[in-house]
Predict the 3D structure of the following.
Amino acid sequence: MTHNKEAESEAWFYGFTKAVSAGLAHLISVAFPVFIAFLSRPGTSWFSWHPFLMTVAFSFLMTEAILLFSPHGSLIRRFPHKTKGRVHWILQILCGSCAVLGLAAISYNKYLNGKAHFTSWHGLLGLITVCVVCVQSLAAVPLIYHSLAKGWSLAKLKRYHAASGLVTFLLGSTSLLLGLCSSWFTASVEGYAWYLAAICPALSAVIIMNQVSSAYVAKKRLQS
């Protein structure tokens, strides 16, 4: 009897911490882009669109796309998995679109100012990340239309997609962190505010990584 109560208590505490983590990820996904929008004031210059669109892409759209599958924090938890998959894909398409537009904005801004392209780690990793996001979105089509992937099991495709999706999200989070080290951001934000801003993509990355890895471990246990 005591053992059952302890197990129930542990299960409740585990669910509570997961729900709090997911709620924190939701909060960051909205608050961080709003903060960047306040700093960059999108529309005031070509450059201003770059940090805004990139933050919307990776901090908001991609985070929310992955959180759709969270058993503790999904905003459409009661919807069928197929619906979640469709909404996830739509959010990822929007993410890729924002990322491409953000890349185009900074490229055109550099062209207007006669500056070299992709000379920093932030620029190079950002370019790679945008390309990976586009490939990841296209590669997800067989998950929706399984007839396009003959000879592949749906379970195996989902595992590969989850693993590559996590890598893509971590690339996006790292790109955002490197962007916070740029001369534009460090000139705008100093001291404790900079560290608080840097915590946002780092913490989101940890929460999403834990969600994806926990889901994979749970599936392995069910199969064993």
